[in-house]
């Protein structure tokens, strides 16, 4: 098993991509700290980890709150004595509206959950990783942080910021044997996206047309590349951003399927 005796903290791990990463890590031997703001789903995810024979610690905390993140990391250290792996995954979706109609509070909230959350969790956890001279961090960015998409004036810049934060932390902490990388998923079929498609809010036909592989990804298809970046096989990979997007990024600016609505 690739992560035996390792302790991993996964933010936003109650559902979706975060839960898939948490379960994949547990299947490979890691004990997992499950963070989320939603207690019900996070509790269920923690139970699944325990059923795999691993230890799971549930910590309800808002990643955008300095105090809550501090307490989460302290509680985790109290329980396990170390944190080897951090996955900054917690996120919310954008209000898909013209910028002139966007609520500034909503813009700020999105930046806080994504970018500030990633910064705070990395800083609090990094303190211990520097001390123990070992750490592996993977930040979940997005293809929307690599190329512009209409009406994503908060989500896109927040994810672009996460990609740059990744590079900065990677060069700062490389000397402490800490690797920091990011993964940029394309469209992934989470429960929330599925619900959006059923309600007609999300347009999967356009996404499929714009994605060279012609389909949405599965959560496990993000978890596996994340595990690769955390593993010894990627020991010399640092500060990289890996698009996992069915060819979306390779398609570049020719995504004419996305006209401004
Ligand atoms: N699904 C996609 O197509 C897709 C594509 C690219 C990037 N992403 C990114 O992947 C990550 C996970 O996305 P997902 O689709 O699994 O989302 P999701 O909504 O299914 O899960 C996100 C989880 O984060 C939790 N969360 C939200 N705000 C939080 C906060 N302040 N503190 C702690 N937890 C919080 C939610 O309660 C939820 O459990 C996000 O960062 C998202 O931006 C998703």
Distance between the termini: 48 Å
How would you state the average pLDDT, rounded? 94
Name of the top-level CATH class = Alpha Beta
The whole-angstrom Rg is 18 Å
Global geometry = globular
SSE string, helices as H and strands as E: EHEHEHEHEHEHHHE
Query: Unreliable stretches, pLDDT < 50, 5 or more residues?
Result: none
The CATH superfamily turns out to be: NAD(P)-binding Rossmann-like Domain
CATH architecture: 3-Layer(aba) Sandwich
Number of strands: 7
Bound molecules: nicotinamide-adenine-dinucleotide
- Proportion in helices: 40-55%
Largest sheet: 7 strands, parallel
Supply the number of helical segments: 8
Q: Domains counted in the coordinates: how many? A: 1
Give a verbal description of the structure:
The protein has a single domain (7-189, 218-245), classed as NAD(P)-binding Rossmann-like Domain (Rossmann fold), CATH 3.40.50. It is 44% helix and 14% strand. It contains eight helices and seven strands. The protein has a seven-stranded parallel β-sheet, sandwiched between helices. Helix 1 (16-27) packs parallel to helix 2 (39-51), helix 1 crosses helix 8 (220-230) and helix 4 (104-132) runs parallel beside helix 5. The radius of gyration is 18 Å and the shape is globular. The relative contact order is 0.14. The model has no long low-confidence stretch (mean pLDDT 94). Bound molecules: nicotinamide-adenine-dinucleotide.
